[in-house]
Amino acid sequence: MNLLPFHLVTLTHPDWEAALACARRLGEDALPELRLDLFPEADPEALVDALKRRCLVTCRRASEGGRWPDDDEAGRISRLVKALKGKPHWLDLEWDLPIPPEIQGARTHVRLLRSIHVRPGCFDLEARLRDLPDGEAFKWVGWAGRLGDNGRLRAPMRWARDHGLHLSAFLMGPKGLPSRALQAVWGGAFTYAAPDDGPPAAPGQLPLATLRTWRAAKLHPGHGLCGVLGDPVLHSRGPAFHNPRFQYALKDLVYLPLPCGEASEALEAMDALDLLGLSITAPLKLTLPAALGLQGPLNTLWRRKVGDTWQGANTDAEAFSEALSRLAPGPVLLFGEGGVAGTSRAELEATGRSVLQASRRTPATVAQVAALAPVGIVQATSLGMLPEDPAPFPDLLAAARPSARWALEWIYKEDTAFALWAREVGLQLVEGGALFEAQAEAQSRRFIERCGGIP
Questions:
Q1: pLDDT band at residue 412, thresholds of 50, 70 and 90?
Q2: For the whole model, what pTM was predicted?
Q3: CATH class of the domain whose range is 239-314+439-450
Q4: What keywords tag this UniProt record (predicted)?
């Protein structure tokens, strides 16, 4: 019987046929987790037999994110015992639970994974590692209230690795994403994944394809961490852009989305996670550089190694300037007031273009737009992040239409309402995706050339 593979994939499908089909597609690096609480009407032994014994059997209580009633513990244990008749490779049994005799008697053909889900705010991993229950593998799950909470797992996980323990310790929630992806870096032996064709089993659980794309199983303690800081960032194209470039350059770096909306929390996380390279997005492009004593707005930070002074650049400005050089000169109508709006205005004025800036807090009038007769329109608001978002300031767009020749969109989602409008009226359009590619390429070069690894 083998030890656990690196990826454990929870079968969360609405019906067993879909779950079984998914399990059969998994490679040797992934083991299906059979959650009996998700298939309460099925015969446990038959489920295990269908998986040809290659599975981890779990029956999760409702208080721990599962569906089995907390007040039916006897029924839950009975269900686990029934599954043992199929001789699964692994069985999940709660950390603090004494091993029932029926399960102890099956230890000749099943290995035990001892698991614990602790309450939010509890970080007792070190104490629990000093008092381990009987088992072959161990799982500790907490909750990330702040991004820097992930760093609290690093020291005990290194201790576990150095002592030969087969451990996975991670935090749930969107801010716990680094702990799930960096198990191999910090000393963990396995991590949990959502099926690619099914929903996550817990908040923050990543799809198997994502973890494989990031090569989570092949990361090692020498890998340094880069990422995109801001809120929201879970949709970011940054990981798909930067990680292949790091891999091609044989650079021991990995790039993750790091959700965080406040500069104070970002500073804490930068130290707790030993971050080396950062893309900064809203709302941190001004506040985070200022907290570091740097002149903003900036969208890129890097340092050679932990402890070095942070350096910064604005690759948004570089990409915008390049795009602007190919567009007709003349006055510009600028929407927005955040970091990219400030960057846009500075670059426009540096080329001698007149700018009329409009935002919710500083509105412009139709008469002002008509008097300006803008040649270009720059969309630098957050509208377009959501599919239902409308185009900004439709009355001002209508007033700008007679003189406009081009439009530029900062949001890099396809077919925003603004981009659709620009195409419909026949304007030359610089899409947000093109700006993203240009600024991200400049970021990748800096990360690869100027960020070291972890010694």
A1: confident
A2: 0.89
A3: alpha beta
A4: Amino-acid biosynthesis, Aromatic amino acid biosynthesis, Oxidoreductase
